[in-house]
Amino acid sequence: MIVAEPDGHETYAPEERQRRVGFFTDTSVCIGCKACEVACKEWNLLPEDGLVWTGHSYDNTRELDANTWRHVAFVEQRVDDGMRWLMSSDVCKHCTHAGCLDVCPTGAIFRTELGTVVIQDDVCNGCGYCVTACPFGVIGKREIDGDGGMHKCTLCYDRTQDGLEPACAKACPTESIQYGPLDDLLERARGRVEELHEAGVDEARLYLADEDDGIGGAGAFFLLLDEPEVYGLPPDPVVPTRDLGEIWSAAFAAGAALVAGVAVAFLGGSR
Fold first, then answer.
1. Which fold has domain 9-240?
2. pTM for this model (two decimals)
3. Are 207 and 213 in contact (CB under 8 A)?
4. Domain boundary assignment for the chain
5. pLDDT tens digit string along 44-89?
6. Which of 14, 26, 56, 140 could bond to 66 as cystine, CB 3.0-4.6 Å?
7. Cβ-Cβ contacts under 8 Å for 245 (sequence gap 6 or more)
């Protein structure tokens, strides 16, 4: 199975570039225990985020932000035989084509030799360009009792570069969060979908596992039991910088035409 090379991955020398790794989150076995959230906070020394009950569900962390790099969504649904819970541990997608990386003016955001996307705290100037460039809203600024910089999941780069699995995957009791080489995970995920379809779970589908989508596929993809919107995920995400090359080419052509027009007008008026 061929997995699309993420932007910038080929800049590493062959002996440094490693097999691309990522997350497969199987929401069909998530029990909503939030062990992944706790493990992520403990390992990465993230501040607690208020633990404010929203009044809309049992979730008390609400969304991904600078202090919450793993967020377990609780979705309550009414079905024919009563109620059911859909639970999903959301995280940064480590996109193949990452808009946050494209727009960072300081080089704080870089692609690792493992194909993941990481923000360097000591280089980030807190400009926030990456926030608007992310179609998933995973990046936030740590303003209160923080450094004013932008933060998000690093896919535990300090662990994975030493051959360890990320803290969230290590803590997950049901193996809802799986870590490993991305091509292996994709093969495993497609097999899991077939297994669920054979068991009569026709609504099972993969999200962000297609390299032809608007972000070129993701380094963190999901098995969902309903439409992405139900989980608060965009149905057809597109990296805002996808057409940047064409935009700059068009702008250059327009500028050249303007300069040529001014030159012609100047030369014609001077006769």
1. Alpha-Beta Plaits (3.30.70)
2. 0.87
3. no
4. 9-240, 241-271
5. 999 887 677 777 677 778 889 999 999 999 998 888 888 889 999 9
6. 140
7. none
